[in-house]
């Protein structure tokens, strides 16, 4: 899946544990290569949270935010819950006053 991140195309794909390398990580962001790898042998929810986690790493690197891993984990969990609990969140269009 191609995801547009801060003006760049990022390829996000699911991989087996053996394809992930040492198996230490369930997700990895490769900023220079424009790739995100997510371990496919997890539940859909965990895959989604991992994708958000890696996207936050992208933002952190691109904007030089200096986020800690603990903060990134918490933000990914927060945004996943927010989007899951409010699937219509981006589907509204505010009406302009005439």
Give structural notes.
The protein is α+β, with helices and mostly antiparallel strands and about 100 residues long. The protein has a single domain (about 1-85), classed as Zincin-like. The protein is built from 2 helices and 4 strands, in the order ββββαα. The chain has helices at about 45-65, 70-85, and strands spanning about 1-5, 10-15, 25-30, 35-40. The chain has a 4-stranded mixed sheet, with helices on one face. A hairpin with a 2-residue loop joins strand 1 and strand 2. Helix 1 crosses helix 2 (about 70-85). The termini are far apart.
What key attributes describe this structure?
single chain; 98 residues; alpha+beta; Zincin-like; 4-stranded mixed beta sheet; 21% strand
- Indicate the radius of gyration in whole angstroms: 15 Å
CATH fold group: Zincin-like
Total strands: the figure is: 4
What is the number of helices?
2
Low confidence ranges: none
Q: Strand percentage, roughly?
A: 15-25%
Q: What is the total number of structural domains?
A: 1
Distance between the amino and carboxyl termini: 40 Å
The gross shape turns out to be globular
Order of helices and strands: EEEEHH
Q: What's the CATH class, please?
A: Alpha Beta
């Amino acid at each position: 899946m191609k995801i547009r991140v801060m003006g760049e195309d990022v390829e996000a794909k699911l991989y087996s544990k053996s394809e992930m390398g040492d198996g230490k990580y369930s997700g990895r962001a490769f900023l220079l290569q424009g790739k995100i790898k997510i371990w496919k042998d997890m539940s859909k929810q965990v895959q989604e949270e991992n994708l958000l986690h890696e996207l936050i790493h992208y933002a952190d690197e691109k904007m030089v935010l200096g986020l800690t891993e603990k903060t990134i984990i918490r933000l990914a969990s927060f945004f996943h819950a927010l989007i899951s609990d409010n699937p219509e969140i981006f589907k509204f269009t505010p009406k302009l006053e005439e």
